[in-house]
TrEMBL record:
This is Alkyl transferase. The lineage of its organism: Eukaryota, Viridiplantae, Streptophyta, Embryophyta, Tracheophyta. It comes from Trapa natans. Catalyzes cis-prenyl chain elongation to produce the polyprenyl backbone of dolichol, a glycosyl carrier-lipid required for the biosynthesis of several classes of glycoprotein. Keywords: Transferase. One of its GO terms (biological process) is polyprenol biosynthetic process. SUPFAM superfamilies: Undecaprenyl diphosphate synthase (SSF64005).
Amino acid sequence: MFLIRKPCQIHSNQLCAPDNTMEKEGICKFKQLFSYLGCFLRKFMFSILSVGPIPDHIAFIMDGNRRFAKKRHLLEGDGHKAGYESLISILNYCYQLGVKYITVYAFSIENFKRQPEEVQLLMDLMVEKIEDLLRNGSIVDKYGMRLYFVGNLGLLSSTVRAAAEKAMQATAHNSRAVLLICVAYTSSDEMVHAVNQAIRKNEFDSVEEEHIEKVPMIKINDIKRHMYMSVAPDPDIVIRSSGETRLSNFLLWQTAYSPLYSPTALWPEISIWHLIWVVLDFQRNYAYLQKKRKQP
């Protein structure tokens, strides 16, 4: 009697395992080489740009997260998460280039009119990302970044407001780089706030009508001093993604002489090349822009 054993079944993935391993190693090495090449090219380009004037302050209108999600058939929240990753990349590039101040339009007062579910999603995401920024080894630590949350913070929920205040307090001693996050913000609200604060400071409310001529009038500097954005110089450049050329009630007071760049890329698609092009154009027009700023 013979015992007949079944032949061993050898799966195709077993036969290909060594080749797959080699292929994966090759891909990994290629990616590593590509990363090194990209890093070298970035440093080379930045060294060329640094010969000319570098903007001190760039403001971003981060437009197109929802359209990006729709375009890629993603959930709406995934579009905003992709937008955050894009923000971190842009912050890295800007600070490496030597830009000190970055302002981002994160959430307008008008955005409260969106569906409650979307607003809550954005608020939850904001709290989550604020906590990420405060972790050891984050981009905040890397660049010694100070955080400001700019806007009518009283409109935020207590949870979001507490997270924002915690971040501002935790980074108050940093000074090498500054990130201003405009949240619950519109320029018209900022101007009304500044005028009201200037009035309170001068105590106009308590002045009787017959003595009004003796009261000093509010000057432009009085309003500037009470702006939410008084902690930073006016932006040298405004960049709005998605090809839109509107400011959408963003920094209207501060951007009278700031060129607006509108790449067609949606915010999660913004890349280093968009930034390089904008800075090159800024340098090309630098003399003209400085002349306009100095005009009375």
